[in-house]
UniProtKB/TrEMBL annotation:
GO terms of molecular function: orotate phosphoribosyltransferase activity; orotidine-5'-phosphate decarboxylase activity
CDD domains: OMP_decarboxylase_like
Identification of the protein by name: Orotidine 5'-phosphate decarboxylase
Name of encoding gene: URA3
Pfam family, one: OMPdecase
NCBIfam families: pyrF
InterPro entries assigned: Aldolase_TIM, OMPdecase, OMPdecase_AS, OMPdeCOase_dom, RibuloseP-bd_barrel
Length: 262
């Protein structure tokens, strides 16, 4: 697969049903924007998801930062996902041994596997983490992104670590559908990974805590990534989330159209 193929063309060739549905959704909605909804109350999260819903393909959550989390929040978010046609990605960044992540993914307060279409994991523990998550997620038609790189200054996820992560993704292709990455990597025969990139913002470069923001065009057109993940650029202080979401959707989509017509 090449960076110049459309999401729709890629969806036709993709073997993972959730990745296939996600690529179709992006094309149908003309959106490669994921909202990073890092707010701490249930009401704020629901309001933000509803306001930005028309413009996003993916709602990215950190469900453990919500003070008043309950099952009703999950029910409301999944109803909004249906209403606005987006998927849900719990950015859980699992990082433990296979047996533990199985429990963390399926059980506890959040029961992530029961509602989150996509989740992600570090590869620090080795391939057991993928095997554990896969045992829970595959029967539920879920899929996984591996953290191949991070957006933050001084990240240790680079070089050999990133290369080994890519090899692990190839080994578990039925469940691993892409990466959190800062660039598209060279494809091998049969690869079609979805590249999701955080650290995207049009108005500021850094947040003083290590985050580094790039322009959507740089991420999608220059670096070949598929999904821009935007948080504070959309809901930060003084911003109108619907207006900003529309602005990021347009920037991300026009960079994609430019890329596939290269
Ligand atoms: P921001 O407000 O646009 O900076 O939010 C970025 C989001 O992406 C936030 O939820 C982070 O936890 C998440 N993130 C990131 O910023 N960098 C990374 O490498 C990874 C996730 Br992985």
């Amino acid at each position: 697969m090449s960076a110049s193929m459309s999401y729709l063309e890629r969806s036709k060739l993709h073997s993972n049903p959730t990745a296939k549905a996600f690529l179709e959704l992006m094309e149908r909605k003309k959106s490669n924007l994921s909202l990073a909804a890092d707010v701490t109350s249930k009401a704020a999260l629901i309001e933000l998801a509803d306001k930005t819903g028309p413009y996003i393909c993916l709602l990215k959550t950190h469900i453990d930062v919500v003070d008043d989390f309950d099952q009703d929040l999950v029910d409301q978010l999944t109803a909004l996902a249906k209403k606005h046609d987006f998927m849900i990605f719990e950015d859980r960044k699992f990082a433990d041994i296979g047996n533990t992540v199985k429990l963390q993914y399926s059980s506890g307060v959040y029961k992530i596997a029961s509602w989150s279409d996509i989740t992600n994991a570090h590869t620090v523990p080795g391939e057991g983490i993928i095997q554990g998550l896969r045992e829970v997620g595959l029967p539920l038609n879920r899929c996984l992104l591996l953290l191949a790189e991070m957006s933050s200054a001084g990240t240790l996820a680079k070089g050999d670590y990133t290369n080994t992560t890519i090899e692990l993704a190839r080994k578990y292709k039925d469940f691993v559908v892409g990466f959190i990455a800062m660039q598209r990597y060279a494809d091998k025969e049969g690869d079609d990974f979805i590249y999701m990139t955080p650290g995207v913002g049009m108005d500021q470069k850094t947040d003083g805590l290590g985050q580094q923001w790039k322009h959507p065009r740089e991420v999608v057109y220059d670096l070949g990534c598929d999904v821009i993940i935007v948080g504070r650029g959309i809901y930060g202080q003084g911003r109108d989330p619907a207006k900003e979401a529309k602005r990021y959707q347009e920037a991300g989509w026009s960079a994609y159209l430019e890329r596939i017509s290269k």
